[in-house]
Amino acid sequence: MTEPERPSEQPSVPLSALLADPALGLRQIAGPAEDRRVSTVGTTEIENPAPYLVGGELFLTAGVRLPRDADGIDTYVRQVAAVGVSALGFGVAPVYEEVPPELVAACDRHGMPLLRIPPATPFVAVGQATYTAIAEVRTRELREISRAQSALATAAARPDALQAVLDRLGAHTGAWAVLYDAHGNELFSAGPRPASPTPERLRDLAVRTRGAARSAAADHRTGTHLTVHTLPGPDGTATTTTLALGQATTTAPTPVHRQITSTATVLLALLTSPRHALGTDTRGAGALVRLMLGATPAEVAPALDVGHWTVVHGRHARSVSPGEDPAQLATLGTALGTPYLYVDGPDLKALIPGTPDARPEAPAQAAELGWTLGFSTPVSASNLPQADRQADRALQRALAAEIPATVHTEDPLTVHALVPPADARDLARTRFAPLDEAGTPGRAVLLDTLHTWLTLHGSWDRTAATLQVHRNTVRHRLARVGEALGVDLQDPGVRMELWFALQWLD
């Protein structure tokens, strides 16, 4: 079956790890013996808990509202199993002296692992042990990902970068890794080649995935797991002409393996892009030659496949020339999204390729590196002198207002322009001062959660995915924010006020 590759799962721990903890004294008394993964712990005592569960839980109950008849218990277990609960934990005492046999039978019938929790084990202890084990698993995963990313970055710097990256990818994932061209031909491969028909199936999957301009696909059958990732094209999306990375393994890819593969895909896309391939940028070099031989910018621009440009002027905070630090220039160029940088002492000029409707934005990294920036509006190559003047005026306004960046605009009547910067910063600090006393998880985490939630238009799920936390954690944090600030976050006016205040917060 071919399907898009699944997103990374939440960190989890095998059920067997909790059963093996002697301090808990848990014992499985019903359900399948398969070692399921537990990603969280849930506890509730209502007649139908299913609507309040999300799947993957170790669901704990003392049977306070457990139906008394066999049919009712069967319905209870069936509803819990339907939402994907990993296991059901039943606490013996004070309601029941022992696990009801009807519950044991229902769990066997519906394939739900049933754990007996002894009277001496509080539910809180089960939760603490679970989250401690999950944290340990996540720490090990992060270390493994960090080691793999370091190895991949080192491989990308070698002369045989493409082969080296595939070698490291195969070593860390245990997969046979292949880089395919637009026609399905193998360019490079690493790891033991599997027996036929696995290579043929992987090639067919790569061709189908690229032909459909999809970013990823998977084909998992008994004993074989195939995945394909198309390398992003120049615009960051998959096309029918881009390369593809294929992998074949005998075990299902783990979340760690998916993260490592994602890093390798980005590196391979960079190494095979026209700007980096063979260490040359032939069109850029050709444009430079034509400029030096007398061509105008308007004549040369089409050779670079760029219709419009944004001009950037910058001033560095320190007197030491930032041009002496190549790493800083590389970071700034990456942040701005352009290789076209010129640094003269503390002054910067840059050209950012783009489209007529592009809205220039100052990256946070620029201010962290000590730069104040002014941006022009996007213009065609023939209007670059005008954009140069716009960028200079924007920079002067940013320097005068002591803000990280300003974008040229013909209409200065914005909300931010109506409030003096010093007053706006004082207002923002005062508005969020109550968060200093909010306690765990702390002001910084609460502000980051609020900013992310507002940026994503109040979406709980997207905010949770971005912050890599559970959606209930997002709800809890925002409830803390609303309580501390004394506001209703469901009020659009309140959201707007907080959004503007966040823009001026130090």
Given as residue ranges, the uncertain stretches (5+ residues, pLDDT < 50) are: 1-8, 275-280
Number of strands: 18
Report the biggest beta sheet as strand number plus sense, adding barrel if it closes.
Answer: 6 strands, antiparallel
Per DSSP, what share of the residues sits in E-state strands of 2 or more residues? 15-25%
> Mean pLDDT, rounded to whole units?
84
How are strands sequenced across the largest beta sheet? 1-11-12-13-9-10
Oligomeric state: single chain
Radius of gyration: 29 Å
Q: Specify the helix fraction band.
A: 40-55%
Shape type: flat
Structural class: alpha+beta
Protein described:
- By secondary structure, the chain is an alpha+beta fold.
- Helices cover 43% and strands 17% of the residues.
- It has 18 helices and 18 strands.
- The protein has a six-stranded antiparallel sheet with strand order 1-11-12-13-9-10, with helices on both faces. The protein has a five-stranded mixed sheet with strand order 3-8-7-6-5.
- Strand 7 (87-91), helix 3 (101-110) and strand 8 (114-117) form a beta-alpha-beta unit.
- The protein is flat, with a radius of gyration of 29 Å.
- It starts with a strand and ends with a helix.
- The model is unreliable at 1-8 and 275-280 (pLDDT under 50).
